[in-house]
Amino acid sequence: DHVMVDEAQDLSPVELAVLIGVAGPRQSVTLAGDVAQKVVENRDFPSWTSVLDALGLGHVDVSPLQVSYRSTRQIMEVARKILGPLATDEPGQMARATRDGAPVAHLKFPSQGEAATWLGPALVDLMRREALASVAVLRADQHTARDWYQILERSQVPFIQLIDDQDFSFAPGVEVTDIRSSKGLEFDYVVLVGVDADTFPAK
User: Fold this and answer.
1) Which candidate, 125, 114, 97, places its Cα nearest to that of 189?
2) What is the pTM of this model?
C-alpha cells in the first residue's frame, strides 16, 4: 500500500523508478535522503530536483528537514565546514541543531604510533568514567579498522569489539569499524582516525 525508501540518495533514478513501479496503482511513496550523505558513488543523484525530474515527478515538492534532533550544534558546524562548497542550498541538506554538546576536537599526531599512544589510554579512561557510553572508532575502510582494533586491544581498552558486516551490538563499549558501516547510527562518542587528504581525497 505504501513504499518508504530511506537513504534514497544512495540509489540511482533507475532503482528508484523500479521501487515506485511496485508501489501499486496509487503509487503512494515516501523518499527520504540527504544528498550530502551519499556514500555510494556512480548513482547519478546530484540533487533532489534533477532526480525527481528524471522520474517524471517534477511536480512533487521536496519537504526539507528543518531541525536536526540527532546532532549537536557543534557537530553540525563542523559538518558545514567539511562540506565547504558542497554545502549547497539543496533542500534538507543542512538542518538547524536544537542542542549543544561537547566541542569537536581535531588532534594531529606525527605518526600512527603516537596517535595510538594517546587514543588507547584516553579510551580506557573514558570507559572507566562512563561505563555505559557507546563509542565508535571509525576508519576509512574495514582493513585499516581491523588494524586499529588490534592496536587498541593491545592497549587493553575494555569492552572493545571489531564490527564487521554491520553486526553492531548497540551495547555500551567501544566498537571499531569503517565509516560506511556506521552510517545512520548514533553513538555517545565518535573518534575518526586517520582523517587526512590522502585517506579522504577531494575527488
Assistant:
1) 125
2) 0.77
